[in-house]
Amino acid sequence: MSSGFAVRAGAALISLLCVAAPGLAAPKKDEAPALTHEAVNAAAPEAKDSGKPQKKGARKEARKDDPDALIVKAQVLLDRARFSPGAIDGRDGDNYRGALAAYAKAQDLPETKSLTPELFEKLQATGAEAVITEYTITEDDVRGPFAEKIPAKMEDQADLETLGYTNPREMLAERFHMSRDLLSALNPDAAFDKPGTVIAVAAVPPLESGKLKGKELPKAPKVSRIEVDKASRDVRAFDKGGKLLAYYPASIGSEEKPAPSGEAKVKGVAFEPTYTYNPKYQFAGVKSKETFTIKPGPNNPVGVVWIDLSIPSYGIHGTPDPEKVGKTESHGCIRLTNWDARDLALHVERGATVSFKDE
């Protein structure tokens, strides 16, 4: 998001620069089969140039927009290794390719943006656990409170009592780092609003909520330096010795409100922040001439966490639109998915260096 907003965590007020399906039909003979958790867990790259003819009835090429079982598996493995592909969606996009490239480099493998057998083998070696697991929907999951609708205009968002999720499906998808379409594709007949429903989800550390006390942070491994790459649209976290600990796709500034250059320091972290608009910045689409505040929640303009930087009004934060991260611009700040922003916030040291790499 862009400058002109403020975040309130308890009594602290932080000035901000940033903000910003139905079931599957049975496949026809020439289409890819329906996605299942068994198919994802069993997926593996096919050997190239094997010389073996394709068996009759073998799986044909999936349509471009269909989630692919092997990509889902690779994305989950990348996420668990803290090389985030953004929202796990089973699609071959820039966020996925960027995560593959960063992981390959970290493993001293040849530079690549595709899932080579060698790269897949390295990912597989990170753990033998299934990448898709079962989860039983609880009473708390469906109780809410849910927002009936999140207005497009920020002035109208200020009237809401909470910027929570709009329904259990949105909440469950974000909890398990997934796109809503993938959640539905894996569970075509599931009633996401019914307790006791068993669903297939990505086997990743679930997004948690709530604030943490300062003495609980930072958690190990500790992040001492952050690199923000404007050209490749990503954020990289390093320890004191220079080891790459985590990689996250990001939305970083725009022509109207570019991200800063040079270096900054991390001043602090605010969990479940409020969001206060400063009219002097005159954001496009915001007509209010008065200050207004938007309450906390995952659909708050800065998501579930704000990492405050020493450059006034700039920060690294979450977003209400995780599926758009890395694909759209921000209003100056660095926008991550809510789960990636919280992960970084849990590990970053106060005083950590933030370096902005220009295009």
From TrEMBL:
Residues 35-67 are annotated as: Disordered. Residues 1-20 form the signal peptide. Residues 224-357 form the L,D-TPase catalytic domain. Pathway: Cell wall biogenesis; peptidoglycan biosynthesis. GO terms for cellular component: extracellular region. SUPFAM superfamilies: L,D-transpeptidase catalytic domain-like (SSF141523), PGBD-like (SSF47090). The keyword Ligase does not apply. Pfam families: YkuD (PF03734). The active site is at 317 (proton donor/acceptor), 333 (nucleophile). InterPro entries: LD-transpeptidase (IPR050979), LD_TPept_cat_dom (IPR005490), PGBD-like_sf (IPR036365), Transpep_catalytic_dom (IPR038063). The keyword Signal applies. One of its GO terms (biological process) is cell wall organization. Keywords: Cell shape, Cell wall biogenesis/degradation, Peptidoglycan synthesis, Signal, Transferase. GO terms for molecular function: peptidoglycan L,D-transpeptidase activity; transferase activity. Belongs to the YkuD family. This is Murein L,D-transpeptidase.
